[in-house]
Amino acid sequence: MSQERSGVATFKGSPLTLIGPELKVGDQAPDFTLNKDLLTEVNLSDYAGKIKLISVVPSLDTGVCDAQTRRFNEEAASLGENVVILTVSADLPFAQARWCGAAGVDKVVTLSDYKTNSFGEAYGVLIKEFQLDMRSIFVIDANDKITYVEYLAEMTEPPNYETAIQAVKELL
Predict the structure, then answer these.
(1) Between the CA atoms of 79, 82, 88 and 94, what dihedral angle is there, to the nearest 10 degrees?
(2) pTM
(3) Dihedral angle, C-alpha 163, 58, 117, 96, nearest 10 °
(4) How many angstroms separate the CA atoms of 131 and 45, rounded?
(5) Roughly what angle, to the nearest 10 degrees, separates helices 93-103 and 63-76?
(6) Above pLDDT 70, what percent of the chain?
(7) Which of 56, 65, 79, 139 is catalytic?
(8) Is 65 a catalytic residue?
(9) By the 8 A CB rule, do 53 and 168 touch?
């Protein structure tokens, strides 16, 4: 049974239960299986040798998640070829593709945790009450060590964009 963490996150002030461990700077990044589309699965090793900024959002179809993904899409161009920005949500791959097309988002890779929630459980962001992933940011170096973590305490609040981008730039 996976570890449950209560009282560390809220949705509009109501407590949420997160499933999985609380990862810390210096931890080895856990592997995951996510869907790039309905048939294509990817793992952490598919991004080997790259600096990874993983932007986790509950659903692209909400205001804060939309803004977060657009912001990291804008930042991606200035970070270079050795950086990949992955946006993870429990949205179906169809919905992610539709949203990206409508929003003109083309520099981040959207990945879906809808099928197994393996990312949510491995990274400690699976919300028990909603079966969505809690808003969070992870920066992982080219050797798959976590160098930056931000678990948001309130689901409706945005992350600290500047600090996350600075964490990536320090690895360049």
Answers:
(1) 100
(2) 0.96
(3) -100
(4) 25
(5) 70
(6) 99
(7) 65
(8) yes
(9) yes
